[in-house]
Amino acid sequence: MKKTLAILLSALLVCSFAVALAEAVVIDELSVVFVPSASVEEMLNASEPLKAMLQDELAKSGYDVKSVKVDVGTDYAVVGEGMISGTIDVGFLPAATYTLYSQDGVDVILCSTRAGHNVVSDDFRDWNIVVENDPSIIASGYRSLIYVNSLTEKGADLLAKAESDTLTWEDVNSAKWALGNVGSGASYVYPSIWLNNSFGEGIGESKKTVENLANATFGGGYPDNLETVVLGQADIYCGFADTRTNDYAQPAFAAAYPELAAEGKTVFDCLKVIGVSDMIMNDTISVGNADFMTDEFKAALQQAFINIIQTDEGKATVAPYSHTGYVPVQDSDFDGTRAALTIFD
């Protein structure tokens, strides 16, 4: 009797496994898109292995994804709009971009963690050293820094005034700014908060944001904006802490100042900080509103990305973002970001 029961149980398990295989949810294509916060070529090359990794991980949860498409959007808004329209399923969105599109059906599933820096300060003077990543520090947020080219006449003047606490709205408003898109926390939203805290009065016509600047150009990515300031074609750009450590920074400096580079100078001798923003919540992984985007599939995606980032190969796929891990979050975690965005109301 026991032997018969064992045989029946074994048969039942085999049948259950076969049924589970037969009932795998088939998804024809999963679209994953990054915002262009680094070199598009660098991001596409790094993320190529992510396609197979996601297919393998999602298969463990019973999802047969026939194709994973990975791309980089032309700007932040394009990614957000694509998620609303249903052409993009998964978006790597900064907190501010997620918040802008969350009311239209975009849902957050994960927030990234990063290695911190050897500088932890809201005083700009402390950032005017060689800033290094510190893997022992796990950071849940980051700063936007306001950079100038200290080797130009205008940049040197702005830095000197910042150091003597005499910097005025007239000074920064007369400078040429290279900025990102409206959804960028580090190159649009939080620099606006810094401007208003430093030079505005909070409301009405006295409010000061990047939208009030007389000489601002918008839409550039961090590499382009950094290069523009290094070349002296703009005076100020804003970026995460610290864009000067990224692969594109030193080559841009060396191309603009070959003699100084030959002497051993670096981009840190050129780009100096005159302002530090409030803390910004880390980047998100958010999802759109496709029919297959059920709660069960969102949970599978969460686990897939968490598993992937725990491997060296997985970390390499998101290296341009400097992500070191992912943690589950919910929409209410971004209420602070929503409050920050009210500066534009």
CATH class of the largest domain: Alpha Beta
Number of domains: 2
Mean pLDDT: 91
What name does the CATH topology of the largest domain carry?
D-Maltodextrin-Binding Protein, domain 2
Given the helix and strand composition, which structural class is it? alpha/beta
* Gyration radius over CA: 23 Å
Q: Kindly report how far apart the N and C termini lie.
A: 76 Å
Number of strands: 16
| Unreliable residue runs | 1-21
| General form | globular
- CATH superfamily caption of the largest domain: Periplasmic binding protein-like II
Reported for the largest beta sheet, the result is: 7 strands, mixed
| Helix share bin | 40-55%
Q: Could you explain the architecture of this structure?
A:
The protein has 345 residues and is an alpha/beta fold. The chain has two domains: 26-115 and 282-336, D-Maltodextrin-Binding Protein, domain 2 (3-Layer(aba) Sandwich), CATH 3.40.190; 144-278, 3-Layer(aba) Sandwich (D-Maltodextrin-Binding Protein, domain 2). It contains 15 helices and 16 strands. Strands 2, 4, 5, 6, 7, 15 and 16 form a seven-stranded mixed β-sheet that branches. It has a five-stranded mixed β-sheet with strand order 11-10-12-9-13, with helices on both faces. Strands 1-3 form a two-stranded parallel sheet. Strand 10, helix 8 (185-199) and strand 11 form a beta-alpha-beta unit. Helix 3 packs across helix 13 (295-309). The radius of gyration is 23 Å and the shape is globular. Mean pLDDT is 91; it is low at 1-21.
